[in-house]
Amino acid sequence: MEPTLNRPLSTAGADPLSACVHCGLCLEVCPTYKLTGDENNSPRGRLRIWREESAGKLGADPETDFYTSECVGCLACETACPSSVPYGEIFEKTRHMHVASGRFRPKFELRVSAAAVRHPGLFNLALAPARILRNLGLLPHRFFFPGRPAVLESTAAYAHRLSLLRKPSGPRVALLTGCLMEAMFREINFATVRVLIENNVQVIVPQDQGCCGALHEHTGLGNAETLHARNREAFRVSNIDCVVSNSSGCGYALAKTMNGTPPVRDVLQFLGEMGIKPRSTSRGKARVYVDLPCHLIHGQKVDGIPPSVLDATGYEWQLAPCAKDCCGSGGIYNIQKPENAREILAKKSAFLNDAEGEPVILATSNHVCMMQWNSANSLVERPFQVRHIIQLLDPGEDALLGS
Ligand code: SF4
Ligand code: SF4
């Protein structure tokens, strides 16, 4: 079945607020309801408040603002809803309205980031010192998982260099490199390029691409249409099979922008469908616990990571307990509402204390979730690593060029 992300999202007609039939099936999947037990802090409660406000029965008041701001934006309620209430669209519009009228104010660092990512070249340059420090292991912050990003070489240049050496001849894809991903975590982009090329995929990295606009949608800050228009132009690369993304949140935002032309695919789904070369190295007693990003399963609405892809890592793996529950990241939630986000993560990560394996690896497919999971190192008593699943498939440059 074609993933929902490549089709128009709204299914509830002219008045989506009235599509809710109050069944309550969304309550048990909502992280803020599970945390508080407060009906107003649930999808059904928020929809009722917004509906009454829109009908003029309820004035704009701090309580409404509070309950709106408490939503993680995980979209689990959309998946659970039998009436196809387009909660994500409603929430996004409400947040934009609250920002425009001054009822919600994103934190300073989010406002600065939202302005900065509009200029990807400058953003990359400004974060070069942070890349150097991270590369040297000298950037201690709970969100910065260990990694060694290239400081100067871009993913576009790297893909070009490797393609000239390996000359892949199979399917042709364009890679979304992202803004924060490229500026801070580009070692994951490099691993993605290597895995694709090893599997004979031709990788194009359009240099004019920019931010997908997800940050602006999460924060409600400004119109992302100029960002969308830029990407529509950049990804109209002739003769590609699809755009691939290694970040489920960015992939979801870009898919809404492209509206199916060309299709946007999560890179792990793409590799699962084409068949992937397995890793053969021994992984010893290591054990991988796989967590599923909300914007993959509830946004892009795919079932999960293909088991054939996870088998191809060569690791013993299993789904993390509550793998479909939100980790509290929510795009910006762990910055905007850090206490709530930490409480959600504490519950979800507790299993790691008794997890089997040496080392224990928590693997997922969204860099923002990876940042949130890395912060669980101070909640969990045993050490564990945070990795992107594409990194577990990575042959490494020497093996790729030597083979
Ligand atoms: S998006 Fe997530 S946090 Fe917000 S109401 Fe829905 S389930 Fe709850
Ligand atoms: S599951 Fe859907 S219809 Fe039922 S209460 Fe939640 S939003 Fe309303």
SSE topology:
Elements: H1 31-36, H2 43-54, H3 62-69, H4 76-80, H5 87-100, H6 108-116, H7 120-126, H8 128-135, H9 155-166, E1 172-176, H10 180-184, H11 186-198, E2 202-204, H12 214-219, H13 225-234, E3 242-245, H14 248-258, E4 264-266, H15 267-274, E5 287-290, H16 294-299, H17 307-312, E6 316-319, H18 333-336, H19 338-349, E7 360-364, H20 367-374, E8 385-388, H21 389-392, H22 397-402
Helix pairs in contact: 9-11
One iron/sulfur cluster is lined by residues 29-32, 43, 46, 71-77, 87.
| Strand tally | 8
Measured by DSSP, the beta-strand proportion falls in 5-15%
Alpha-carbon distance between the two ends: 36 Å
- Tell me the series of helices and strands, N- to C-terminal: HHHHHHHHHEHHEHHEHEHEHHEHHEHEHH
Strand order of the largest sheet: 2-1-3-4
> Total domains, how many?
3
Mean pLDDT: 93
Radius of gyration: 21 Å
Count of DSSP helices? 22
- Structural class of the secondary structure composition? alpha/beta
Could you say which overall geometry the principal axes of the C-alpha atoms support?
globular
Task: Characterize the main sheet.
Answer: 4 strands, parallel
Give the proportion of residues in helices: 40-55%
User: What ligands can be seen in this structure?
Assistant: iron/sulfur cluster
Question: Low-confidence parts lasting 5 or more residues at pLDDT below 50?
Answer: 1-13
